């Protein structure tokens, strides 16, 4: 274990981007993408640690929570089901257990103690409602001692749609029980079951997400304005090995290929790290080879936004971002734009080439064969 921990830290340290400029050391909160400490992110770290320690395998309740929160039902229905499973639905037995002096008999049948399972499944009105909607025969499911156990067994064998319908019924059964307690009015199951399920079906149709129409054409690369040089950059990143391929291409306003580069890199911490490193390398090369005035295009929105604001300044990429900004300034105040992937094909191919063949750094003025075809078909300007 100690050697595993050591490898983890060594990998992390190796992946820290270094800067040629001297910046003061500072604390970075790794659990936040901007490097800033928040109570919310600390809560998530603590929670994931507890979950990892507690579980020797997959958490069996995870499928139930997932089933509830992703069910196709209104939020109030999900909350009702969650309360029942967490054993905090205020049935009379639960109120009594919490020290409230109350008659624990079921307000509907007045025969049994009103536990959550009785109220939602076993009471005569509840069981009639479930059988009208043709949910599992109750004889099969009576071994369970809590709503949590009952719904856990249901979520594993019902379809998503049927499980959602079951949650709707549970909510309707609880609402009917509350009308009895507060207004002394309860409806028979034959009345509220079709009403509830009918209303649910209608709302499902209204809220159904329209299917997206495919785009008729994808955007292509565009030539820069007269006198400008355009640099397109892209990176391909492999999380498990911490490796990346960097690729970039320089083209002029007449669509001419002016140069390109690629490089295989190890000790890369994230896709953002790889994208930022590529952009920095590209802009440094532009200054070195006097490929200015320069427009830079990247398909990584996060890098573009971070460069224009201060978003990554406090993260582990902060120094690299500062270097990149300075390099942009040095390259005759280059300008950075976001571009969609379909307009960044050549840089993408170069990054892939570097990654898949582990290419050493190379700057070339003759286009390699892997991008020749893309260079001819890439542009939609004539
Ligand atoms: Zn009852």
Automatic annotation (TrEMBL):
Highest taxon listed in the record's lineage: Eukaryota
* Any Pfam family matching the protein: RVT_3
Signal sequence annotation: 1-15
Using the record for this protein, list the coiled-coil segments as residue ranges, or answer none: none
Domain RNase H type-1, by residue range, is: 232-354
Q: Where are the transmembrane segments?
A: none
| GO molecular function terms noted in the UniProt entry | nucleic acid binding; RNA-DNA hybrid ribonuclease activity
Residues covered by the Reverse transcriptase zinc-binding domain: 37-128
Q: Does the keyword Signal apply?
A: yes
Q: Does the keyword Signal apply?
A: yes
**Which keywords describe this protein according to UniProt?**
Signal
What is this protein's name? Uncharacterized protein
Organism classification, top ranks? Eukaryota, Viridiplantae, Streptophyta, Embryophyta, Tracheophyta
